[in-house]
Amino acid sequence: MLARLELKLKSQEMITYQMSSLFHGALMERLPGEYADYLHMSQLHPYTQHLEYKDNAWYWIVCGLNKQAVQVILHDTLWNLKQIQIKKHHMTVDIVQRKYEELSYRELMEEFYEKDAERYQNIHFISPTAFKQQGQYLFYPDMRCIFQSLMNKYDSAVRDESVVDEDTLEQLCENAQIIRYDLKSVSFSLEGVRIPAFIGKITIKMRGTQTMANFAEMLFQFGEYSGVGIKTSLGMGCIHRLERGGK
After folding, report:
1. In the structure, what pLDDT confidence band is assigned to residue 160 with cuts at 50, 70 and 90?
2. What is the pLDDT of residues 73-96, one digit of tens each?
3. Backbone torsions φ then ψ of 217, nearest 5 degrees
4. Which ranges constitute the DSSP H helices of 80-201?
5. Does the pLDDT of residue 128 top 90, yes or no?
6. Closest Cα partner for 163 from 94, 215, 213, 96?
């Protein structure tokens, strides 16, 4: 199961997307100790969270990527939360509205098998996004890194159904071409380290078989919950799919 909880925020103090890691810390403090320890030890986390500014307001958006994460994090921990304490900044942030949606993996796969995906995917990188390759930060939208990250996150969330396959990854990369972009270099501050990253929009044209186009769309749909790239549990790598069609 995939689920998203959007919490609309109100604060007397300024909020910025760079504070996502502080909200992550506030979340960890509220989780049951045993589950929080499990999350700290897990390399690919079954949740993501980030801060997003839209419609003249800030939102804290937390996603669960499996049934346990949805239940423990979204329902048990955050559902009835009225305020968030950001101790480092001595801030109290009120939650004034909430919105919840979920998508089963069965529904995700049904769309893959039953619908013909668009050949053009318009992707908006909402929060700073980066990848790590051979120990170095990669802060531009490399298609191999994007697809590999999404496939790894999918496999981590759906342990009984692997999609990571080198041949499939090669086919995706060979048939995906970025034909338009509007990107900006930014940095994401984390514990005194400034991680080079990017935000903005790209349009990807998918060639090849319809099955390959469907698979790419399924990965991007999953990516709206999982994020892409590094540090997605700390606020990086949020993506949205924009209107379909168009060149």
Report:
1. low
2. 999 999 999 999 998 889 999 999
3. -65, -40
4. 105-114, 143-157, 166-175
5. yes
6. 215
Note whether 183 and 141 are within 8 A (CB): yes
Question: What are the tokens at 159?
Answer: 């342990």
| Arithmetic mean of pLDDT, 219-229 | 97
Q: What is the rounded distance in angstroms from the CA atom of residue 210 to the CA atom of residue 206?
A: 9
pLDDT at 186 over 80: yes
In the block, residue with structure tokens 């469907």:
214
Number of other CB atoms surrounding residue 16 within 10 Å:
10
Structure tokens at 203: 């349009």
What would the two tokens of residue 22 be?
A: 């502080």
Q: Which amino acid is at 93?
A: V
pLDDT reported for residue 161: 64
Instruction: Pick left, alpha or beta for residue 245 (phi over 0 → left; psi -120 to 50 → alpha; otherwise beta).
Output: left
